[in-house]
């Protein structure tokens, strides 16, 4: 049903007047690559309640879609275009996507938290539906037929009964905008009419990426562009006492050293000179502020000052039930400090001309970066434009925003276009980190082998948010300038702290630690991955306590049919054999032990369902763990692009196996010592598991996100598989050979 | 500043650069070839891989003064998005990328492998790519793409 639209009552003349301000001329996405700021597409409507902020229907039948969300390498440029193609009834290949340009796209909040498709795509879809309904009504008026007699295909509105009566979107808007307000209640197309959504449209960016034609932020160049390296201390919090650039001056191409407070950068005409100048610049640094002892950091973390405590789940009386229980166990879980470790160090290009700052940035938050950059550069937000260019995958707030701020500040100081390319150690050591985690669990089963009481106590870093913007986040440039920025921007770490199972007595508490010792930010599935590691490992321990099969034990405490379905899907893929106790290998000694473990997570306890079965080989002598196969059952509602979804699930598994087995940031009392791929190793080809995926589609349902859910299920599935193989519980991520050997030594013969 | 005559993707290119300039910077910044990528500058990740006389080499740690007469091939030299080579087409067909930043190295290393070993086993593919890192976790698709190109 077409909801009555206020806008359809407006006169055509009025509409065109409204559209004049948003007049759009046809251009391709490559326009964001214009080599001067003046040649960029003109600013246009970006208000979130205006249809023209999201789309432009060009005279030649082409369509431009504008979204504030960006494609971080996950395929959302393609998926969002699919959503728009169906909701507008235009051919997919006539759509050009513009993402994350602050002057032409609406602020849809940062790209993260698994929200690009559900929230970003949902907003886009409503804008498209509003446009389609209004234009059909306008066509009805023009063609003199009832709107109910009209259908839309390929961007042309046509009478169902008289093919001669037709008019294209392009003709209706005549090169102008629609002038419409987004109608939140505009009827959305039923899934049965989807033609593009639900199909594996190949990603639009891959052909250019396999041929070197794609322009990443690292590849963007402006005429007369200078190359800079920001010189920062290894010791965190160290101050520059003396800066001496005499050695740099001998370099061909050296321009100058910039110093503003503690912000120090070398600027050169070519990149290699900048790399060498950064090495040649002599800086005498003070000692750093000091770091806690890594060996005892979890004790340190437990003792830190709390900003607040919050109970996230309460059912019955868990403390009393636990106290009265005979079959009760406690366990503490840890998750190490990790980092995004993007393959390509962050890079940004900025230009400051005529009072306007333009920044080409791979930031996942270009809109809120306007505010952050205003604070750092002193330039008014309205005079700052960020244009998104793909960087290397970031998986959260990595160094992209820091490099963006570095480039912006230098452009402002120099009045010339500047490119800042971070080096490997900048990205691995100096980019923000995920904070450490501690999780205390306590639980009991009753005489019938059912969960009776469940208690979780989670030590999480406080998330500093103001109006959902990271305004207190200490970007390095801000800190260098002496701007006090005391915050963490770590994401919603309480999510998935609650137990997803039916238990008569539950209490889950979160302790929000005021300050982390590293600059801390969100890393893929923040909070959910750590909490789910604890919850799903502990669920396995409870199953063992009850003498139950870990998969059946989960099913026995779940009633949601979609939860049951993903678990059964993973079990089926893995040919799960119901068992009680550990595998036969666990009763042997020596050699390689094989086992399998399961875990189940519903993302945020509210959206996507995922279950994973991991298969492992544990070498008892070396303590080496190899994850050989992971089977995933997945239900994120309406699937937009099945192959794109599979790609996300596979990547989520493999990246998280890396985090589970290998990854931890190391440091001494002054500095981070994980600086490159030798000191922060990640998974290599021979270590990557085979991933098998069963995707359950629920057409017509909300399309939930799929980037973050799978990783949440992986660490516990691996740890539980190691238990199955050996009888040893691994409660600390990463699961290193040393920890495995220590745990094996505690297993009773 | 010394001048060098390089052969890049079949064309003679004259460049001026300090002798210690890594080939990557000459290709990426002077010749504006975007295929080879800066990942580490340490020869650890493979993102900068090019071919020297058909052999995979790490351009980030290779001084331009040591190239001599060797023929340089970059990702752009294999094919274009409109006319991709077999290995590039296989990466498209398998959708073997997420962010795609490592893709240059994956394709260049695999292309060199397929020249010497036209029908590699999975183990041979994994061994050839052992020094190439992918952060997004696209390993399975990359292996499938190489197998497809070999078929």
Key traits:
heterodimer, A: 749 residues, alpha+beta, Aldehyde Oxidoreductase, domain 4, 3 domains, seven-stranded mixed sheet, 25 strands, 28% helix, globular, B: 151 residues, Ubiquitin-like (UB roll), DNA polymerase, domain 1, 2 domains
Structure summary:
The complex is a heterodimer of chains A (749) and B (151). Chain A is an alpha+beta fold.
**Helicity range of chain B:** 25-40%
Radius of gyration of chain A (CA) equals 28 Å
Strand order of the largest sheet of chain A: 9-10-7-17-14-15-16
> In one word, what is the shape of chain B?
globular
Which structural class do the helices and strands of chain A define? alpha+beta
Gross morphology of chain A: globular
Which topology of the largest domain in chain B does CATH recognise?
A: Ubiquitin-like (UB roll)
> What is the average of the pLDDT values of chain B?
98
**Which oligomerization state do the chains in this entry correspond to?**
heterodimer
- Estimate nothing, just give the exact number of structural domains of chain B: 2
List the helices and strands and how they pair.
The complex is a heterodimer of chains A (749) and B (151).
Chain A: H1 12-20, E1 55-57, E2 63-67, H2 76-88, E3 95-99, H3 116-143, E4 150-153, E5 156-159, E6 166-168, H4 169-173, H5 206-209, E7 226-230, E8 240-244, E9 254-260, E10 263-268, H6 271-280, E11 282-285, H7 297-302, E12 306-315, H8 318-323, E13 328-335, E14 347-353, E15 356-361, H9 366-377, E16 384-388, H10 400-414, E17 418-421, H11 424-430, E18 437-445, E19 451-461, H12 476-480, E20 505-513, H13 528-546, H14 550-556, H15 561-573, E21 592-602, E22 609-619, E23 625-635, H16 642-661, E24 690-695, H17 709-726, E25 732-733, H18 737-746
Parallel strand pairs in A: 2-3, 7-17, 13-25, 15-16, 19-20, 23-24
Antiparallel strand pairs in A: 1-2, 4-5, 5-6, 7-10, 8-11, 9-10, 12-20, 13-18, 14-15, 14-17, 18-19, 21-22, 22-23
Helix pairs in contact in A: 2-3, 9-10, 13-17, 16-17
Chain B: E1 3-8, E2 11-16, H1 23-30, E3 49-52, E4 55-58, E5 71-73, H2 75-78, H3 86-93, H4 103-116, H5 122-128, H6 139-150
Helix pairs in contact in B: 3-6, 4-6
